[in-house]
Amino acid sequence: MLGLKLATDPRWVTIVESNIEEILTDHAWCEQKAATNIITIITYNSEHEELVTDLLEIAKEELEHFQMVHNIIKARGLKLGRERKDHYVNELFKFLKKDGSRNDAFVDRLLFSAMIEARSCERFKVLSQNIEDQELAAFYKELMISEAGHYTTFLRFARKYSEKVNVDKRWQEWIDFEGELITNYGKSETVHG
Asked: Class of the 11-184 domain?
């Protein structure tokens, strides 16, 4: 369904399990950044009523996920560390088209968002199926389902609001770029690391 070129090696979960506090902190900040990204999309495209309505719901979900991760951190006696840089997302951001029309940029931002959600969904699936901690396995299975819904929403809006962009062609370019990029990741205890 996701169409990603490269699946995460399940051995990545062993790295994650070596430092649960780090993955939880990184995950919490990923949720915060996802909400911020959505608010940015809404801010620049507020003329699209359906988009605003649906993305506001997703932004609330992302903040709820942030709170859920924070609650797990607190319940385990861990600390929410400082915000982490997400090098994977920063590399994806560089792939955004900088030229073209306002609509081209809007559609590409939606595809950028869909790509992050797709990889997060895939990583959560790997966690849910391979982590020994049953509480976290159930938690990540729940979030996997949520991320899949976010991914499809961003793709749906890219197709709906595109004026001249061949969305399927551009999405394939995103898939190909991410397939190369992800080969550099999967080596640290972060969601995209």
From this structure: mainly alpha
